[in-house]
Amino acid sequence: SLYVSEYFSQSAQKLSFYSWYGNAKLFHFHVPEDTVLLRWLLQASRGKGPECTNMEVTVHFRYGAPPVINPLGTRFPANATVRPSYNISMTLSSAVQNNTFVNVTTPAAGDWFIAAHLPEAAGRIEVKGFSTPCTYMFQPDMFVLRLIDMPVLEPGVAMTQTVVSPAKPLHVKVFVPKYTATMWFELRNCVTNEQKACAVRVVLGSITLPQSFQRILTCTGNVKCNLGLDSPPWEKWLQIMVENLGTANAELFVEMVASFTACKPGSTSSFLNFSSLNQSQTGPRPGNTGAAGSHAVPAGEASRNASDQRSFCLQSQPVVREDLDVVSVRYRLLNGPSVPVYSIFPTLLFLGLNTGMDSGGSLVVNLLLNKTSLNLANATVLACVSAASPVLSPNATQNCSTAFFQGYPLSVSASSTEAMLIVLYPETSDWFLSLQLICPRGQGECNNAEAKVTVVAYLTPCFNDCGLYGQCSLLRRHGYLYAGCSCKAGWSGWSCTDDTKAQSISAQNLATLLLTLSNLMFLPAIVVAVYHYCLVEASVYTYTMFFSTFYHACDQPGVAVLCIMDYDTLQYCDFLGSVVSIWVTILCMSRVKKILKYVLFLLGTLLIAMSLQLDRRGVWNMMGPCLFALVIMIAAWVYHGVKRRGCYPSSWKRWVFYLLPGITLAFIAISVYAFMETNENYYYTHSIWHVLVASSVAFLLPPREKHKKPWAWSQKLTCRYQICQNDREELYAVT
Questions:
Q1: 567-590 and 594-614 helices cross at what angle (nearest 10)?
Q2: What residues are paired with 228 via a beta bridge?
Q3: pLDDT in tens, 578-636
């Protein structure tokens, strides 16, 4: 045998603390055919700074689809199928890097996925640039050992092979055709070169994670041993490995044969023509009283079909796959939404999910029993959803298992007419829905019975669009797309259905009121600015109060939401107004000349707008203008102090009752904003930030110039004609 080793790698990704599925870093690999050994090299590393501490990295594996994980222990939606993923933990302690190997013998060919993440996120809101978080990196490499020219076991043809030694097992493969009901594998004429009784172990199938359904057959002596597999995977290669359990130097000569039992499919119509497909797409034509896609069967053909029913192994219903969008598929039955279900054979529906881009969503199957069509009160329609091959006898296998897959059961009856199944991240394969009528007193009771079941099947990115308190996000890893739910308002879970820590409606209303009404504290600052003739500053504060109020009204996670315009626009205007308010306040305190002040107002606003467009959450977008304005203010105060040969501002009352309280409020506000905000206390800590910042502005604004009189609206409204009369008299006096 000739083995070839191959190496596959992907670029390293920065790990994140886990709060939802988008924090897990996904890696997608493809294992080639005839692979006999798969080895993962998992490389985790961390930074060398003092902020880096001991950390545990969790790595999940799955075949065929991204792993379904639940690190937070939250609830999944009802009727969802959940099978724990296979995972390992890697600890980064004193060592900067950790390398771990994971070996998989005889892996299944196809897509394999790895997801890695850090422990649960702390929930603290960190301002970008205030602290330097530790960097944790993860990179998986894949090594495969592939057998060239693997022997092919042809159906019904005996093949003799040699097992050289226990260290070198024999690998063969056999192709399972479509509509295979049973596969029989037989091992016979096993002899050794030492003419002793041989002992071998036969492993049928490949390893798939998190669950593996390999079938093992142990044979000793020269006795024939065989194994039957019900419903093996259709149209796939099945690997068979024969291991020598004898002495190290003994060679084995084995003869093996595989045979198949075919399953004859039946159909509700003799053929599928283009006219029926066209009718199902456009609806019933004028004058046609039947349902779209229905067919009238002549009486002679109906009797002939009834006589041939017992020779069928299954009844196949034509299904059309309709691609709607990314990870969004609808399955439409050509003969109508209702399918007939019998007891003598299962009704089979084919649900194709083999494009390689369908495993990133959720497969939803809904069943609705028409009670008027079922004349047996105690009868039950049992359904099985399985991958790779259908369940051909649901009445015998109540657990819906096939040769190498554990299916998902569903049932409807007269007492419970509806059933739903949600398969999270279905693996890439051909999926099947099998339905069969079962009677409690035996199948003879319902030989002539028929049940009508309405089947609705579709693939959606997120089940129920993540509900009212979640957002469905489409994630991408290179060319692979998958979806995940980002929950809000304290809700959690795969589809945001876990309300263990959910906020009540009253708490959501309180959060909205606090975050919006706290902006009204800008009203005193606006009044003070207008009283001091600072009209430009008052306009900026009004702008900030307006957009901050409606941004936080739109930014709420619950039901108390009001968006007067696009969310991104509101956020940008809120950030812009906040930074410009700080900019104009400090420049106003500097007491520079008006022309210079207004030039700095305009130039600074333009630069702030540009920097916010580049990085909206960067700390230097706020700190940069503040520091530059403080430099200008300190320089102006020093100039005024030198010119007056004294302290500026010169009044001790100005320092004690205005400047020191304003500066104190500003520092407290910055501390709350930078170090105290978390996801849980955001609604009141950020409200405190609003109150403190607006209050500090009212204290820090400089007083009105002495030569300017206060606003006197009554005098200015009544003396307009008097001014004109005085000007005219002065004009006459000059002439």
A1: 150
A2: 184
A3: 999 999 999 999 888 889 989 999 999 999 999 888 888 777 777 888 888 899 999 98
Question: pLDDT tens digits, residue range 12-28?
Answer: 999 999 999 999 999 99
Helix H, strand E, coil C: the string for 675-719 is HHCECCCHHHHHHHHHHHHHHHHHHHCCCCCCCCCCCCHHHHHHC
Task: Map residue 631 onto helix, strand or coil.
Answer: helix
Residue type, 326: V
Residue type, position 693, single letter: V
Helix residue ranges per DSSP H, 158-284: 274-282
Cβ atoms 332, 320 nearer than 8 A: yes
Task: List, in sequence order, the alpha helices (H) in 383-492.
Answer: none
The tokens describing 687, both together, are: 């409200």
Query: Token pair of 155, please?
Result: 């159906």
For 656, the token pair is: 């004690």
Q: How far apart are CA 674 and CA 272, in angstroms?
A: 67
User: What is the C-alpha R_g of the chain?
Assistant: 37
- Helix (H, G, I), strand (E, B), or coil: what is residue 650? coil
Q: Determine how β-strand 418-424 pairs with β-strand 362-370.
A: antiparallel
Query: What gap in Å lies between CA 466 and CA 472, rounded to an integer?
Result: 6
Dihedral of CA 367/369/373/378: which sign?
positive
pLDDT at residue 392 tops 50: yes
Instruction: Give the C-alpha separation, 345 to 158, whole Å.
Output: 33
Cα separation, 500 vs 255, in Å, equals 60
Decide if 47 contacts 134 (C-beta within 8 A): yes
The upper half-sphere exposure of residue 194, i.e. CA atoms within 13 Å in the direction of its Cβ, equals 12
Q: Phi-psi category of 619—alpha, beta or left, where left has phi over 0 and alpha has psi -120 to 50?
A: alpha
pLDDT digits (tens, 9 = 90+) for 215-252: 998 888 777 788 999 999 999 999 999 988 877 677 88
Amino acid at 321: R
Give yes or no for a contact between 580 and 544, defined as CB atoms under 8 angstroms apart: yes
The whole-angstrom separation of Cα 513 and Cα 562 is: 12
Pairwise CA distance, residues 36 & 212, whole Å: 15
Q: Which domains are seen in the chain, by residue range?
A: 3-123+133-147 (2.60.120.380), 157-262 (2.60.120.260), 317-460 (2.60.120.680), 505-700 (1.20.1070)
Question: Which pTM does this prediction carry?
Answer: 0.82
CA–CA distance, 380 with 398 (Å, rounded to integer)? 12
b (16+ CB within 10 A) / e for 338-347 = bbbbbbebbb
Residue 254 in 3-state DSSP? strand
Burial degree of 386 (CB within 10 A; 0-12, 13-18, 19+): buried
Strands, sheet with 199-204, edge to edge from the N-terminal-most edge strand: 170-176, 236-244, 199-204, 215-220
Cβ atoms of 564 and 554 closer than 8 Å = yes
User: Please, what sign has the CA dihedral across residues 81, 82, 86, 92?
Assistant: positive
Q: What's the rounded Cα separation, in Å, for the pair 268 and 427?
A: 29
b/e map 412-449, b = 16+ CB within 10 Å: bbeeebebbbbbbbbbbbbbbbbbbbbbeeeeeebeeb
CA 202/CA 226 separation, integer angstroms: 10
Rounded CA-CA distance 283/152 in Å is 49
Give the other-Cβ count within 10 Å of 541's Cβ: 29
**What is the per-residue DSSP string for 513-531?**
HHHHHGGGGHHHHHHHHHH
Helices (H) then strands (E): counts for the chain: 13, 33
Distance CA 62, CA 226 (A): 31
- Measure the CA dihedral 505/509/512/517, to 10°: -170
